Amino acid sequence: MAQNNEQRIFPPMDGGGCIVKGVKRIAHLDIPGGAQVVEQSGYLFIGHLCPPEGTSIIDVRNPGKPRLAARIVLPDMESHSHKVMVSGDLMIVNSQRHRRKFFRKSEKLQGVESKLTIEKKEKPNDMEIAEAMGIKPQEVEVLRAELTYEYQHGGFRIYNIANPSNPREICFQPTGGMGAHGFDFDGQYCYVSTEMAGFRGNILVIYDLSVPARPKEVSRWCLPGQEAGDSKLTSQLNGNWLHHALKSGHILWAACSDAGIWAIDITDITRPVTAGTYNYHPPFPESTHTVMAIPQTNQGRKLALAIDEEHDNHPRGQPHAALWICDVHQTDNIKPLSVFEVSELDSPWSRSGSRFGASQIVEHPTGNLVYAAWFAGGLRIVDISDPASPREYGYFIPPPAPGLPAPQSMDVEVDNRGIIYLLDRNRGLDILELS
Asked: Environment class of residue 227 by beta-carbon count within 10 Å: exposed (0-12), middle (13-18) or buried (19+)?
């Protein structure tokens, strides 16, 4: 008989109510929740999830005494800016329709109304429509309004951060649809996951930022079937679409949600071509969130990490989102080597009703220790010195933010001093170090 998660014996909580092994908290900052944290030269750049909060810049040159250096407020309440990348004096942030998954439901509204009209032989009321769509009755009118609304703010913004305490907007680059989601930036080229006219779901668009005030589109890449009118895709948002891609040499490692791992060859950056793919959906239900090549090898073969993202609608009885180690020596023959997952018994908040499962890894190599954020599971530090048999080195599970049922650790960063930054989706930033 399966154990109850209350029976799990954890290390004693520290003075701040945290469950820890091999890690200690050196500071906590009460800030709005976010989805991405990156560090450069003693400053953190944090993308927030909900307007009006856009991007926070935090001075962590003294990590025990973090200080808010700058706060960027969004120009509209219809967007969020939850992703951020920096390189040198430039910072890139996305602009995407806030609550886009909810507003996507407007596309189904007319079909639901027609179906109910045929079944009932009369026009349905808002209560009946709401029940069929799994929404609140007052939200039906909101979705009707969305059908006639055209979102105008999708794209990304470029800032000069030569003085991190005084970021200066250089330009806004519009894209299309619900806007930009994730990206990578190598100092010259920005590899953007965004919606664009004529495509279904997010595709890759590469921009040259050699002149930051005038971004220049270089090329595009998409999954088979994303072109408008192609019947191979059945979902615009939650099926096959590009979450984002990370550059390693001449390969972009693309996390493509339910389509899994894709390698994109950009030897000719004006003509990205598919070099290989590996999809583990099904049987694993949670979408691929991030794929990153790492310097380690296994028997002389190149490796990459892939991490899934847990979602609210996780099916009971199915595996939770996990961390994968893959053999990518041959991009046209990608193979999984091992999987690391966290048991529901490993967190007292795993069955709180909130998300529980993997979220994100540090998006740059960190040696044999991989740092992963886990919804309701905090920080998990994984030793991959044996890629075929990853082992947990340590963990840090913070208490839930006040009034919330569980911690929702969403992103993690590690700087060159070994200081760890753990960002919660709902509220709060923890600053940690190995103990």
From this structure: middle
